[in-house]
Protein backbone atom coordinates (compact mmCIF):
# COMPACT_ATOMS: atom_id res chain seq x y z
CA UNK A 1 0.00 0.00 0.00
CA UNK A 2 2.88 2.34 0.83
CA UNK A 3 4.36 1.78 -2.66
CA UNK A 4 1.02 2.69 -4.25
CA UNK A 5 0.79 5.89 -2.20
CA UNK A 6 4.32 7.00 -3.14
CA UNK A 7 3.61 6.18 -6.80
CA UNK A 8 0.49 8.36 -6.69
CA UNK A 9 2.43 11.20 -5.04
CA UNK A 10 5.13 11.05 -7.73
CA UNK A 11 2.48 10.93 -10.47
CA UNK A 12 0.74 13.99 -8.99
CA UNK A 13 4.07 15.87 -8.81
CA UNK A 14 4.72 15.10 -12.47
CA UNK A 15 1.18 16.08 -13.46
CA UNK A 16 1.46 19.59 -11.98
CA UNK A 17 4.22 20.77 -14.35
CA UNK A 18 2.41 19.09 -17.25
CA UNK A 19 -0.76 21.01 -16.36
CA UNK A 20 1.22 24.25 -16.26
CA UNK A 21 2.60 23.55 -19.73
CA UNK A 22 -0.90 22.87 -21.06
CA UNK A 23 -2.12 26.14 -19.54
CA UNK A 24 0.77 28.04 -21.12
CA UNK A 25 -0.23 26.88 -24.62
CA UNK A 26 -3.32 29.08 -24.25
CA UNK A 27 -1.00 31.96 -25.18
CA UNK A 28 0.17 32.48 -28.73
CA UNK A 29 3.98 32.23 -28.67
CA UNK A 30 4.50 31.79 -24.89
CA UNK A 31 7.43 33.70 -23.34
CA UNK A 32 10.81 31.94 -23.37
CA UNK A 33 9.44 29.08 -25.51
CA UNK A 34 10.79 28.12 -28.92
CA UNK A 35 8.20 27.26 -31.52
CA UNK A 36 7.70 26.16 -35.10
CA UNK A 37 4.55 26.29 -37.21
CA UNK A 38 4.32 24.82 -40.71
CA UNK A 39 1.45 25.00 -43.18
CA UNK A 40 0.07 26.01 -46.54
CA UNK A 41 -2.25 28.54 -48.11
CA UNK A 42 -5.99 28.38 -47.44
CA UNK A 43 -7.07 31.45 -49.45
CA UNK A 44 -9.99 30.49 -51.70
CA UNK A 45 -9.26 31.12 -55.39
CA UNK A 46 -12.55 33.00 -55.72
CA UNK A 47 -11.63 35.41 -52.93
CA UNK A 48 -10.54 38.06 -55.44
CA UNK A 49 -7.14 38.58 -53.81
CA UNK A 50 -4.09 39.64 -55.78
CA UNK A 51 -2.28 36.70 -57.43
CA UNK A 52 1.38 35.87 -57.02
CA UNK A 53 3.31 37.58 -59.81
CA UNK A 54 6.82 38.19 -61.14
CA UNK A 55 6.97 35.17 -61.28
CA UNK A 56 3.45 33.85 -60.86
CA UNK A 57 4.47 30.90 -58.69
CA UNK A 58 2.22 29.76 -55.80
CA UNK A 59 3.41 29.05 -52.28
CA UNK A 60 3.71 25.38 -51.31
CA UNK A 61 4.60 25.87 -47.64
CA UNK A 62 5.12 28.55 -45.01
CA UNK A 63 7.05 28.26 -41.74
CA UNK A 64 7.08 30.47 -38.66
CA UNK A 65 10.12 29.94 -36.45
CA UNK A 66 10.88 31.39 -33.06
CA UNK A 67 14.09 29.96 -31.64
CA UNK A 68 17.28 30.87 -29.82
CA UNK A 69 18.30 34.13 -31.52
CA UNK A 70 14.80 35.58 -31.20
CA UNK A 71 14.29 34.38 -27.62
CA UNK A 72 17.67 35.77 -26.48
CA UNK A 73 16.78 39.16 -27.98
CA UNK A 74 13.35 39.16 -26.33
CA UNK A 75 14.86 38.45 -22.90
CA UNK A 76 16.89 41.65 -23.15
CA UNK A 77 13.79 43.82 -23.75
CA UNK A 78 12.07 45.53 -20.79
CA UNK A 79 8.42 44.58 -20.09
CA UNK A 80 5.85 46.78 -21.85
CA UNK A 81 3.66 49.07 -19.72
CA UNK A 82 0.50 48.03 -21.61
CA UNK A 83 1.03 44.33 -20.82
CA UNK A 84 1.56 43.39 -24.47
CA UNK A 85 4.66 41.59 -25.64
CA UNK A 86 7.02 42.19 -28.53
CA UNK A 87 8.31 39.01 -30.14
CA UNK A 88 10.51 38.15 -33.10
CA UNK A 89 9.67 35.57 -35.76
CA UNK A 90 11.37 34.27 -38.86
CA UNK A 91 8.93 33.69 -41.72
CA UNK A 92 10.21 31.34 -44.42
CA UNK A 93 8.38 30.43 -47.60
CA UNK A 94 8.79 27.68 -50.20
CA UNK A 95 7.38 28.36 -53.66
CA UNK A 96 6.26 25.72 -56.16
CA UNK A 97 9.41 26.15 -58.30
CA UNK A 98 11.80 25.36 -55.42
CA UNK A 99 13.15 22.13 -56.95
CA UNK A 100 13.98 23.59 -60.35
CA UNK A 101 17.61 24.27 -61.37
CA UNK A 102 18.72 27.75 -60.38
CA UNK A 103 15.65 28.34 -58.20
CA UNK A 104 16.04 29.37 -54.58
CA UNK A 105 14.91 26.61 -52.20
CA UNK A 106 13.40 28.84 -49.54
CA UNK A 107 12.73 32.55 -49.14
CA UNK A 108 12.81 34.28 -45.74
CA UNK A 109 11.82 37.50 -44.04
CA UNK A 110 15.00 37.24 -41.95
CA UNK A 111 15.30 36.50 -38.25
CA UNK A 112 13.91 39.71 -36.87
CA UNK A 113 10.28 40.19 -37.87
CA UNK A 114 8.98 42.20 -34.91
CA UNK A 115 5.39 41.58 -33.83
CA UNK A 116 3.27 43.07 -31.07
CA UNK A 117 1.38 40.25 -29.34
CA UNK A 118 -1.56 39.57 -27.10
CA UNK A 119 -2.71 36.10 -26.01
CA UNK A 120 -4.50 35.41 -29.32
CA UNK A 121 -3.02 37.77 -31.92
CA UNK A 122 0.38 39.00 -33.07
CA UNK A 123 0.51 41.98 -35.44
CA UNK A 124 3.52 42.97 -37.54
CA UNK A 125 1.68 45.78 -39.34
CA UNK A 126 1.77 44.08 -42.75
CA UNK A 127 0.64 40.66 -41.51
CA UNK A 128 -1.06 39.09 -38.50
CA UNK A 129 -0.74 35.73 -36.77
CA UNK A 130 -4.01 34.64 -35.16
CA UNK A 131 -4.44 31.71 -32.77
CA UNK A 132 -7.16 29.19 -33.65
CA UNK A 133 -8.60 26.32 -31.64
CA UNK A 134 -6.80 23.00 -31.91
CA UNK A 135 -3.23 24.32 -32.01
CA UNK A 136 -3.36 25.95 -35.46
CA UNK A 137 -2.60 29.55 -36.36
CA UNK A 138 -3.57 31.71 -39.32
CA UNK A 139 -0.92 33.84 -41.01
CA UNK A 140 -2.95 36.61 -42.65
CA UNK A 141 -1.33 39.08 -45.06
CA UNK A 142 -2.80 42.51 -44.29
CA UNK A 143 -0.34 44.55 -46.36
CA UNK A 144 1.78 41.96 -48.11
CA UNK A 145 5.37 40.93 -47.36
CA UNK A 146 8.60 40.73 -49.31
CA UNK A 147 10.73 37.66 -48.68
CA UNK A 148 14.31 37.22 -49.88
CA UNK A 149 16.23 34.15 -50.99
CA UNK A 150 19.63 32.89 -51.95
CA UNK A 151 22.89 32.92 -50.04
CA UNK A 152 22.44 36.64 -49.44
CA UNK A 153 18.81 37.45 -48.71
CA UNK A 154 18.94 40.63 -50.76
CA UNK A 155 19.71 38.81 -54.04
CA UNK A 156 16.20 37.58 -54.87
CA UNK A 157 12.83 38.85 -53.72
CA UNK A 158 9.29 37.63 -53.99
CA UNK A 159 6.13 39.05 -52.52
CA UNK A 160 3.34 37.47 -50.52
CA UNK A 161 0.41 39.68 -51.63
CA UNK A 162 -2.17 41.28 -49.38
CA UNK A 163 -5.24 39.13 -48.69
CA UNK A 164 -3.55 35.72 -48.75
CA UNK A 165 -4.10 33.48 -45.71
CA UNK A 166 -2.06 30.47 -44.58
CA UNK A 167 -3.04 27.89 -41.92
CA UNK A 168 -0.13 26.50 -39.94
CA UNK A 169 0.11 23.80 -37.28
CA UNK A 170 2.55 23.47 -34.39
CA UNK A 171 5.43 21.25 -35.52
CA UNK A 172 8.76 19.98 -34.18
CA UNK A 173 11.59 22.52 -34.46
CA UNK A 174 13.32 20.34 -37.05
CA UNK A 175 10.49 21.12 -39.49
CA UNK A 176 11.50 24.80 -39.53
CA UNK A 177 15.16 24.16 -40.31
Outline the fold blueprint.
Elements (H helix, E strand, L loop, with lengths): L1 H23 L10 E7 L17 E8 L1 H8 L9 E11 L11 E2 L4 E5 L3 E3 L3 E5 L4 E6 L3 E5 L6 E5 L4 E6 L7
Antiparallel strand pairs: 1-2, 1-11, 2-3, 3-4, 3-5, 4-9, 5-6, 6-7, 7-8, 8-11, 9-10
Can you put this structure into words, describing what you see?
It is a single chain. This protein is α+β, with helices and mostly antiparallel strands. The chain is built from 2 helices and 11 strands. The protein has helices spanning 2-24, 68-75, and strands spanning 35-41, 59-66, 85-95, 107-108, 113-117, 121-123, 127-131, 136-141, 145-149, 156-160, 165-170. It has an 8-stranded antiparallel β-barrel with strand order 1-2-3-5-6-7-8-11. The protein is globular, with a radius of gyration of 19 Å. It starts with a helix and ends in a 7-residue tail after the last strand.
Task: State the secondary-structure class.
Answer: alpha+beta
Number of helices: 2
Low-confidence sequence ranges: 3-24
- Share of helical residues: 10-25%
Major sheet: arrangement of strands: 1-2-3-5-6-7-8-11
Order of helices and strands: HEEHEEEEEEEEE
| Main sheet attributes: strand count, strand direction, barrel closure | 8 strands, antiparallel, barrel
Number of domains: 1
Count the E strands. 11
- Net shape: globular
What share of the residues does DSSP label as strand, in percent? 35-45%
Q: End-to-end span in angstroms?
A: 49 Å
Give the mean pLDDT: 80
> How much is the radius of gyration in Å?
19 Å
